């Protein structure tokens, strides 16, 4: 890991190089925690990694959720609602930029797999893309304040989207 380039830091960034490295590591931790909490269905903890006013966009432009509680409910309903969906989410190769002492942006390569049972058939989705995120330090803790999921490729069993009562979402 290289030392942040303090010669080209934003004017509102006054953190030392060591503090910048610590901030980036804390952001990586909150990102990883969110994925683990989501995949292990620990819904009581899901909101704890987001700001109160978080905005999330996924499954196409028409699915925008604002607010920690509404986001937790939306994710819970998608993965653990009427139909239980086993999920595995991975985030790789983060590009994190501190934009001030208390704000940052990040882009993560992502891969996810989701499975659910449709009668006797197992349905499956395997997706690849990127998370585009923003972070804000609130009362000493880095939290996710914005997330947009963009997908580059999906492979899915023919009836995967039946559990949502929809067809394949627009990209």
Descriptive key words:
3 helices; 171 residues; 6-stranded mixed beta sheet; single chain; alpha+beta
Low-confidence stretches: none
Order of helices and strands: HHEEHEEEE
Give me the secondary-structure category: alpha+beta
Rg (C-alpha, Å): 17 Å
Please explain how this structure is put together:
- This protein is of the alpha+beta class.
- Helix content is 23%, strand content 43%.
- It has a six-stranded mixed sheet with strand order 2-1-6-5-4-3.
- A hairpin with a 6-residue loop joins strand 1 (50-57) and strand 2 (64-66).
- The longest helix has 23 residues, at 17-39.
- It starts with 16 loop residues before the first helix and ends in a 15-residue tail after the last strand.
- The model has no long low-confidence stretch (mean pLDDT 90).
Topology (SSEs and partners):
Blueprint (H helix, E strand, L loop, with lengths): L16 H23 L3 H4 L3 E8 L6 E3 L1 H13 L5 E13 L4 E16 L2 E18 L2 E16 L15
Parallel strand pairs: 1-6
Antiparallel strand pairs: 1-2, 3-4, 4-5, 5-6
Summarize it.
With 171 residues, the protein is of the alpha+beta class.
